[in-house]
Amino acid sequence: MKLQFLGGAREVGRSAVLVNDALLLDYGMMTGNPPQFPVGSVEPEAVVVSHGHLDHVGAVPALLSGPRRPPIHWTPPTSELALTLARDTLKLHGNSPLCPFTDEEVKRATQVSETHGYREPFEAAGHEVTLYDAGHIPGSAHVLVDDGETRLLYTGDFHTDDQRLVSGTAARPDADVVICESTYADVEHEPRAAVERRFVESLRTTVWEGGTVVVPAFAIGRTQEALLICDAHDVDCYVDGMGKDVTRMLLSHPDFVRDPDALRRAKSNARFVTGRDGQRKRIARQNTVVVTTSGMLSGGPAMTYVPEIRTDPTNKIALTGYQVEGTPGRELLETGRCELDGGVYPVAARAEYYDFSAHADGRGIRALLSDYEGAKILVAHGDDCAGFAEELSADGLDAAAPTVGETVQV
Fold first, then answer.
1. What are the DSSP calls for 38-61, one per residue?
2. What whole-number distance in Å separates Cα of residue 155 and Cα of residue 54?
3. Distance (Å, rounded) from C-alpha 179 to C-alpha 167?
4. What would the pLDDT profile of 147-162 be if each residue is shown by its tens digit?
5. Is the pTM of the predicted complex or chain greater than 0.90?
6. Is the peptide bond before 393 cis (omega within 30 degrees of 0)?
7. Structural domain that includes position 334
8. SS3 state at 76
9. Domain count of the chain?
10. 156 and 73 in one domain?
11. Do 56 and 199 lie in a common domain?
């Protein structure tokens, strides 16, 4: 089996792996200014997408330019999430060089979409492919690829522990080769229940003291997790941004959610912001909690709320996800300053970070890999892939960390 790493190798973002010059696994983008896309020119016969996050699916419509029409295989939620993200990218960047596809190519994606449930084998570009629940976000999948000689497990992003929104992965299909994500390979997550307790206590205390809490959250997965936590602990909140539409959409796919009834209750508990007539500024002056995109403060409604609350130390900004280096959220955590409206300003509101990661930590990754001791392990999707591969090799596994553009024969 021939594997070409077009992105996502020794980096987090723009994941893309070409199998046997025919089957493409993921085709994402790396957010930034400017954004980065997978390397090289690729014309796959078929595409399989692991899940609906920008770094795995953000550039997929670009594969449909010209006469090319490769079928795109994914779960039903991933299909809808991918198209939602694509339309949002068009809205934000339009015809600028920052957008690698057009509205027409997004429409074509709906025409070549083929959805599959978990553990339902299908044929793609001459390979047998099976999707398994990866426990990351609704619809996320491990991808098992069998070319008749070699069985490849592409983990995508995964979590081995339960979240309120989805259950952790328990899938361990037989494989000769594993391409494994390593985002949190050097981290041990604090127990989720303890993180929740600190988070809820902070929300309640701030509101009691007369403050407002802005909770920047990724629209897909993290917003719904935050709403579920607020509802479970009787914390009233608003929800704003793309997370509103994603929440509604996920409720139409109850089989891919751990507890659809709980998600319905959480949606009912949250007040959806319309954004009309200065509503956001009025909400920011209330003693309340606002869950809103963007999760790294790089745009979205959060950039209306944060300027309104930044000068009062009674207020808080509770970051719920990993803050990529160079983003306003990372800058806020490290310096207490934040880029707002084209300038960098001090933020008196207290910035806090809560590890609600939807990725397995080092313990979880090793738990999964312990079932593949005889397999070739290719470490990807991390800040220190090479270091983690060395650790695995020292423990007796056959591990390596490919680089972007590298071809590996297995």
1. -SS----SEEE---SSHHHHTTGG
2. 17
3. 22
4. 999 999 999 999 999 9
5. yes
6. no
7. 192-353
8. helix
9. 2
10. yes
11. no
